[in-house]
Give the backbone structure.
Amino acid sequence: MDPSHLTQLVQLEDNYWWHVAKRKLVLRLLNRFAPAPGRLVEGGIGSGRNLVEFDKQGYNVTGFDLMPESVEHVRQRGVEGVQVHDLEDPWPVDAHSVRAVVLLDVLEHIEHPVKVLEHVHEALSDDGSVIVTVPACPWLFNRWDEQLNHFRRYNIRAFRSQVLESGFRVQWLNHWNCFTLPVAMVIRSWEKIFPRRNPPDFPAVSELTNRLLLTAAAAERCCMDISGIPAGLSLVGVLRK
């Protein structure tokens, strides 16, 4: 992650609809599939806002990130169990000791994601769960992904293939963020025709729009429990051994 993107995350993660909605979705899945207490490891900690929330839920939290700036910022937030570590290297935790692993928009940044998942498999307890989010719709891959150093966007088939290759099974899988997909399709199609080189960012929204998008995300979470979401800008999955 570029340090400037970390600065943006620090400014946005408390209130911006996308970050808040994703955090609420992940907390819902953790409570359902791997409730506290227990050890939770987040790979790719960013600004640390999620770890702070996981700690409040009663987990014993640990986090890894490649960026020293990120690790230092999270320690300043009062979360001590974080360290600089390459997720493609063996994880510095005891085998089968982790209750939950969280990888939120991380695997697309990694050249060899199966290797990361294999290390997760070694660290996870037999009754533990992994919560993963990744960007969906490979045909939407554009300069935004390139500037964020994404290797890929995922479809369901590719996601399942990597999961199975690493020794996991998919317990639960859904799209999310369906309600902004039409807008994203228009914007990214336009940018393919008229490319820009502006730094990647989250578009500014008014307070009212932010509330409306949070409401849409809440409705989407309810639909996930009833019928599932057939399409969306992201995939979210729960993995088990």
